[in-house]
Design brief:
By secondary structure, the protein is mostly helical. Helices cover 69% and strands 2% of the residues. The protein has two domains: 268 residues, Ferritin (Up-down Bundle); 40 residues. Helix 6 crosses helix 10. The longest helix is centred in the N-terminal third of the chain and has 31 residues. The protein is globular and about 70 Å long. The two termini are 29 Å apart. Bound molecules: fe (ii) ion (2 copies). The site of one fe (ii) ion (FE2) has 5 residues, from helix 6 and helix 7. InterPro entries: Aromatic_CoA_ox/epox (IPR052703), Ferritin-like (IPR012347), Ferritin-like_SF (IPR009078), PaaA (IPR011881), PaaA_PaaC (IPR007814). GO terms for molecular function: phenylacetyl-CoA 1,2-epoxidase activity. This is 1,2-phenylacetyl-CoA epoxidase subunit A. Keywords: Oxidoreductase.
Length: 334
């Protein structure tokens, strides 16, 4: 979306507010209570717009930064087939970033502004991508655990009240389930290989399991904005509910892989009908999210370098679009 389009959207929303603020609010409330979709042209409360802009753009940034730990292994994947699969996965993540930036900008903030927030270090992205991928097994653990957690988180977002976000998530989730299967398959082969390969798979799961559980965000009592997001039908389940669902899903999968989840407190609770699990290291989470993880600096340096090295591509694309527009105008005029 360009700046005039963004201004137009804002003007439409301001006009609605000026004419009959209460009627606009009532219509929005009705859409939410009927579990209908809010579309870009509809009036929406500023808080709803801001919350979604932040959430969707952070999600887009996570997809883009998330390409780095895996791209690192494209040239070192153990076979041509593995390279091709990994390359396709990393390319999918770039696509997810693009769908999500497109959804975010329908809320009125242009893509270059959102991108600049990331480059300036003002926008967050998922803390998991600040961990390094040290071995080939880490690529398996990322696919199985990180994409697995993303699926748990994102399937309910397919029903998010904001139309463009929900629709983007439908396609993303389909691709994420393919990603999780490729991770599973890497770990399965390693855990059924030599003792060294099995150990490598176990080490990778040991490193990524805790950070993957933290991807669902802080415990419910420390997540003050969740309630409002649930009232707006953006979120459908709380952080702890989703985390529990993920743990319950992963235990049998780990058993099938022949690997152990690194949590001595993990135990089936007959009464609750769920697995109990141990306390997570929230100090580590806070430290990584505030910039002190093992790879935060490297990730941002790489992103900034890629952005400036890609300037010529953006200029060429803009010039091509300008020429095509002039060409088409000439044809229409002729
Ligand atoms: Fe993705
Ligand atoms: Fe993915």
């Amino acid at each position: 979306m360009n700046a005039p389009q963004a201004d137009h959207l804002k003007a439409v929303s301001d006009a609605a507010l000026g004419e009959d603020e209460q009627a606009a609010q009532n219509y929005f409330d009705q859409l939410i209570s009927e579990d209908s979709r809010v579309e870009p042209r509809d009036w929406m409360p500023e808080g709803y717009r801001k919350t979604l802009t932040r959430q969707v753009s952070q999600h887009a940034h996570s997809e883009i930064i998330g390409m780095q730990p895996e791209a690192n292994w494209i040239t070192r994947a153990p076979s041509l087939k593995r390279k091709a699969i990994l390359m396709a996965k990393v390319q999918d993540e770039a696509g997810h970033g693009l769908y999500l930036y497109s959804a975010a900008e329908t809320l009125g903030t242009p893509r270059d502004v959102l991108n600049q927030q990331l480059l300036d270090g003002k926008a967050k992205y998922s803390s998991i991508f600040n961990y390094p991928a040290r071995t080939w097994a880490d690529i398996g653990a990322i696919g199985w655990l990180v994409d697995g957690a993303a699926i748990c988180n994102q399937v309910p977002l397919c029903r998010a009240s904001y139309g463009p976000y929900g629709r983007a998530m439908v396609r993303i989730c389909k691709e994420e389930s393919f990603h999780q299967r490729q991770g599973w398959e890497i770990l399965y082969e390693l855990s059924h290989g030599t003792p060294e390969q099995k150990q490598m798979a176990q080490d990778a799961v040991n490193r990524f399991y805790g950070p993957a559980l933290q991807m669902f965000g802080p415990p419910d009592e420390d997540s003050p904005n969740s309630k409002q997001s649930m009232a707006w039908n953006i979120k459908r389940f709380s952080n702890d509910e989703l985390r529990q669902r993920f743990v319950d899903m992963m235990v049998p999968q780990a058993e099938a892989l022949g690997l152990t989840l690194p949590d001595p407190d993990l135990k089936w609770n007959e009464e609750r009908g769920h697995y109990d699990y141990g306390k997570l290291d929230w100090n580590e989470f806070k430290s990584v999210i505030s910039g002190h993880g093992p790879c935060n600096v490297q990730r941002m340096q790489r992103r900034r370098a890629a952005h400036s090295e890609g300037a010529w591509v953006r200029e060429a694309a803009a010039e091509y679009a300008r020429k095509m527009e002039a060409h088409n105008a000439e044809l229409i005029g002729a």
